[in-house]
Each structure stands twice: as structure tokens, then as C-alpha cells.
Amino acid sequence: MSTSTVLYDHPGPRARVRNRVLSVVIGVALLALCWWIYHKFDQAGQWEGWLWKPFAESKTWTQFILPALGQTLLAAATGMVLSLAFGIVFAVGRLSDHWWLRVPSGVVVEFFRAVPLLLMIFFIFYGVPFLIQGPVSAFWSVVIGLTLYNGSVLAEAFRAGIRSLPGGQSEAAYAVGMRKNQVMRLILVPQAARAMLPVIVSQLVVLLKDTALGYIVAFPELLQRGVNDLAANYGNIVASAIVVAAIFIALNSVITMLAGWLDRHTRRRAFRAPKQTAAPGPGEAAVAEPQG
Fold first, then answer.
1. Under 8 Å CB-to-CB from 60, ≥6 apart: which residues?
2. 91 near 156, Cβ under 8 Å?
């Protein structure tokens, strides 16, 4: 019997009726809200054909949206990889037994969690060049800012996930002679990643959306090219914003579906029974492994 079955209390007849009524009421309220938004936009003339005509032209997609989408996905993918690595490293650092490693890791995580991401991107692009005596590209300004902020949040998520695991697992690993780095790398971190998968996915979705903050340094992502530049050429800012929002919703839905598939895949592998070696039959001698 699964944990969800044990913890879930099936609703009775009155609860089922109440749930249906609430579902109908909420559905009607959402439909009324959508109609009100549509009506207000219609009164303002935002559904007129000339505002949406540019999206039927190939140059709108080849010159504005698709290149911006590529830059957004590249920055998001790079930031995701670096943020996960940053989060794991500093989560392990905060759990270290050595104060000279634990304290600096905590300072770094708390500092970058507290600084607004927009300010961080702005400082990396405009401030760091004075320190390194060289320019920092808009792409790396966005990626580094996303890595520092989201990596710090993920570090706390990993640390909470590791601490939530039963202590007996670490004790059993130490009992068979494993070192602490082996315990972290082979036992605790993989389980914490599975346990904190919803939090990790939510933060990666936030990271993808936060690429839009790259407009502050003129990074050619979806908000900059798909809304600002496109509306400056065609005067359809509301239509452009709706199309770009739909693209972001589709991208986030894909990330959520991939995370769900990964969760199911890892659970199947975790609960798959290992194959047992058959015992030797009558007249068969057991093959002994050679001794070193």
C-alpha cells in the first residue's frame, strides 16, 4: 500500500457534493473573468485584425520571436545546469563538519538570496567591468545572475532535503566503511534530489521566467525582442505580450511534464526488485569467486 493511499482520506457523499458545487462555482467565476477581460480588450480595440496580422508573417518569427526564444532557452539551460551544480556544492558546504567551510558557504548563500536578481544582473553588467578591466556580455551577466540567485535557493532546498532523510541511512553507510563524501555523493544527495524534486522544478520554472529580466542589459530574450522591439515596429504591445506569455506557459508546461516523467522513471528504478541469483540445483556445485 502506497503512502498516498494511507494518508488520503476518501471523501464521503456530502464532501463529494460539496466538491462538485465548488468546482462548478469556481469554473463559472473563471469563465466570467475571462469574458470580462475579453470584453474590456474588445472595447479598447485590441482584437482588431491589424494588431495580430504580424504574427501571420514569417519575418515576425524569423527576425524577432525565434531568435529571442533561442537566446532565452540557451540562457535558461546554462543557468539551470550551473544553478544545480552551485546548489549541490554549497548545500554540502553548509553541512560540512569544518567551520571554515560551513560558515563561508552560509554567508555566500544568504547574501545571494538577499540581493534582488535585477540588481545583481545590473551590477554584473555595469560594475564588474571596473573590477576585471574588461566587458561582461549581456548573456553572461544574465546567466551569472540567475546562477547565483537560483543556485542559493536550490542550496537551501538540497540542504533541507538532506536533513529530512532518516539518520539511520548515514549511520549504516558509515558502518560499512564509507567516507563522508561517499555518503553524500552516493546516498544522501540523490535521495534529497528526488525528495525535493517539486521544489527544484518550481525554482527552475522561476529561473526560466527570470531570463526576462535580461532586458535591463538589452539581452535579446523574449521580452526584449518579442514584446518591446516587436511592439515598437508594429504598435501591438498587448498582442505581443499575449503571444510571448503563451510561449512562456508552453515552455514551463514542458519543464513540468519532463519533471513528472523523471520522477516516475526514478521511482520505478528505485522500487524495482533486484534480480536474485538462483541457488545451485542438485548435483551442481556453487562457483566460488576467485580470492585476491
1. 54, 230, 234
2. yes
